[in-house]
Amino acid sequence: MDAALAAKGFVRWLAPEMARELGLDGNIAPLSADDLVSLKAEGWLTRDEILKVYAYSHAAAIMERSLGPKVQQLRLKAEIPEEFEQMCVRTLPVALRACGPSLTLVTVFRKPPTPLAQAISQVLRGYLSRPNPTRCRRLAGVRSIVFEHPSDRAALAALKAVPGVGLLTNKAVDFFNKSDAMALLGGAILATPQSLPVIYKILEEACEILDVSPIPALYVKFGPLESYTLGAKEPYIVLASIAVSLFTREELLFVLGHELGHIKAGHVPYHTLAKTVKDGAAVASNITLGLSQLAFDATLSPLLGFWSRRSEFTADRAGFLVCQDQEAALRALMKLSGYPPTFYKEMHTRSIVAQADRFRNQLAHHAAERFFTVSNLWSASHPYTVSRAYELRERQSETITDSSD
Ligand SMILES: [Zn+2]
């Protein structure tokens, strides 16, 4: 199912008596407002595509009032924002008049005249790039227990129970504060209201939604498409500069919300320890306080890796709570996993959901795949993207609680 086919199905439902004139034969199934909403929820249609279908339907309803109730249904079911509706109300009647007296409904649906097509593109562009988009709901007083993944909590408890791990963690944090944090302050761009006002504003908004205070330092630097948080008492977030260019505002809210989730759940000191271990023996041996490298690798590394992968599920949920947009969360994951920027326009989150289902099916039925999957992930800090997409979707129906009380 692609957007063009979905739009044709919707027109068939909207104006069934025009099906023949429009060339919508029996192969095009009618799709109601509810159907479009379901297609969006399943990842077949993006929010922008729904907005476009709505804008054309809105124009059609101006020309033919009897279409009004069904267009209204789409507005309510798809939760078309009031701001977008108002932009259509202001712009589309003028555009329709500019199309001339010969304009018919068939033309609108089949081959929209240039003034109408341009007006709708303008409305869409204007809405998507508006300077003060509707803010997400604040979760005042929210505690990490609301978004923690149960397996993260259990794994972190097991990690903390290892004798000496607290001391090692403090050493690792101290080491990073002296080396990495200083290197960032020296060589990366610290986001401030002056240096990167748009990005800082998004960070500020993310902190406000997830009730994180004080606002942690955010450094933007060259490097692979990733983000991470290190430190302890003064955690700092690092974001690849390419992410700023490739991600939408909502996707950045997800990515920064993910990092704030790590901070809020108390993950950051242990991630700092994990990074120290991963960075190699030379660094690790400076902080192992006499523990032999072998004991370090055999005891701590697997526990850290196991917990670290689970902690990502917690942080993804926090990211979703901040952006409050499942599609944006999944799109951000797809981009982080290497979806080619040239084809972002073709990206549909349905494909990653389908891939996650396929992965789980394969895993459930083949012992060899299970073995290799476990060994491949043994030392990884992050779970597979499909597992993250699956967990995000599984927790979608959990209510967003304002407070854990
Ligand atoms: Zn993370």
SSE diagram, text form:
Layout: H1 3-14, H2 33-41, H3 47-63, H4 68-77, H5 82-98, H6 105-110, H7 114-128, H8 150-160, H9 165-178, H10 180-187, E1 189-190, H11 197-210, E2 217-221, E3 227-230, E4 236-240, H12 241-246, H13 249-264, H14 268-278, H15 281-287, H16 293-323, H17 326-336, H18 349-365, H19 367-377, H20 385-394
Parallel strand pairs: 2-4
Antiparallel strand pairs: 1-2, 3-4
Briefly summarize what is shown:
By secondary structure, this protein is mainly alpha-helical. It folds into two domains: 3-128, no CATH class; 144-394, 2-Layer Sandwich (Zincin-like), CATH 3.30.2010.10.
Description of the structure:
By secondary structure, this protein is mainly alpha-helical. The protein has 20 helices and four strands. It has helices spanning 3-14, 33-41, 47-63, 68-77, 82-98, 105-110, 114-128, 150-160, 165-178, 180-187, 197-210, 241-246, 249-264, 268-278, 281-287, 293-323, 326-336, 349-365, 367-377, 385-394, and strands spanning 189-190, 217-221, 227-230, 236-240. The radius of gyration is 25 Å and the shape is elongated. The mean pLDDT is 84.
